[in-house]
């Protein structure tokens, strides 16, 4: 979940999120609006999407963003910038 999201999320929202397809594109949170990259978290294995994945080509800048955005150091940096 995005670090700026209030942690007191209603239980019904959390229950719905477990069954949802969630697309994350962290570029704007890190101030990199020109970088296009995202990742998808699925509630279960989806062979159809896995078969399509090779056609989703992204640049090395987006790969670097996505790899970095999930690191603890980057998440802590982002969290420090969130309003309290």
Structure commentary:
The chain is mainly alpha-helical. The chain is 39% helix and 7% strand. The chain has helices at residues 11-18, 47-52, 60-69, 72-80; strands spanning 22-24, 39-41. Strands 1-2 form a two-stranded antiparallel ribbon. The longest helix is centred in the last third of the chain and has 10 residues, at 60-69.
Question: What's the SSE blueprint?
Answer:
Elements: H1 11-18, E1 22-24, E2 39-41, H2 47-52, H3 60-69, H4 72-80
Antiparallel strand pairs: 1-2
Which strand order do you get reading across the main beta sheet?
1-2
Decide which structural class fits the backbone: mainly alpha
H-E order: HEEHHH
Task: Tell me how many strands there are.
Answer: 2
Give the % helix. 25-40%
| Percent strand | 5-15%
Shape by Cα distribution = flat
Count of runs of 4 or more consecutive helical residues = 4
The span between the termini is: 16 Å
Q: Unreliable segments (pLDDT under 50, ≥5 consecutive)?
A: none
Mean pLDDT: 81
Sheet with the most strands, sense and barrel status: 2 strands, antiparallel
> Radius of gyration from the CA trace?
15 Å
């Amino acid at each position: 979940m995005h670090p700026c999201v209030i942690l007191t999320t209603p239980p019904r929202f959390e229950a719905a999120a477990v069954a949802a397809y969630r697309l994350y594109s962290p570029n704007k949170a890190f101030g990199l609006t020109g970088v296009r990259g995202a990742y998808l978290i699925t509630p279960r294995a989806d062979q159809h999407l896995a078969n399509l994945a090779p056609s989703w080509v992204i640049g090395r800048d987006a790969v670097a963003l996505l790899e970095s955005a999930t690191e603890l150091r980057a998440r802590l940096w982002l969290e420090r910038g969130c309003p309290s």
